[in-house]
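chain below, 277 aa
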Amino acid sequence: MRNHQGTALRLAAEGLPVLPLRKGKVPFANCRACLYTSCGGRPHMKTPGPCTCPAPCHGWAAATTNPDVINSSAWAGTWQGAAAVAYHPGGAGLTVVDLDNADAIAWAREHLPATQTVPTTRGEHWLYLGAMPSANGVRPGVDIKSTMSYARWLGSGTGTMTTLPDVVRALTAAKPAAPAPATVTVSAPAGGGQCRHRTPAFLERGIAMAEQRITEVTSGVHNAVYATFLAVLSTHGRCGCLTEDHIARLFTAAQTKGESARHCTDAWDNARTRLGL
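prediction:
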């Protein structure tokens, strides 16, 4: 088993804010006190700031260079179950251009200055010195990971890191505005009107975690949306606690990642059919 905690401590000592990832390249849900309504947990939080959670927060906001936090009891069992180490590029003054396929790499080699590169499962990370706003899908197969985002640590790679060029900064400015999410077109499942076997806080946390899972997925968005809808419905689809507001939140998160309203509706209906709802 790889020593992810040891890797995290080494990277933190070098000034790289780190956090553990569980299976699926998803951060652990750490702080229950704020129920994902602040720091790095919810898509509507646009301004990074100091985390006031009593425990390590979630997503990019959990990243830290403090060895006491990395070794704390809050993360004691987390590292044993961790699948990888991630870091917050913007917190270290870095930007990662995430190239997801061969076409994206070919484009980068033609248009971007050479810099430090790290091989990934399907493509490459190009690292530049300087931070900027993060954005997904700035070009086909190209994401920008910097402030309020995280990237998997895959090694130091090769080459010398160069200063963040204007051509990369311009990618987010050139990205077309996402269309406004469509109105929800499905009704909430019938049931007893309340979640009799769980508390309201459990429901809120479950919806917030589902939003986060959709928001942070980097590939296979449609499959991730379906799996998330299936998980929510398997827990709350029969007790009647889900409202149209809850469903609207899930649909909004999915459409923000590029899913169409029709795909959202199909995924929801397919999940209900599979569960016999």
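The radius of gyration is 20 Å. The CA atoms of residues 125 and 174 lie 21 Å apart.
thats it, cya
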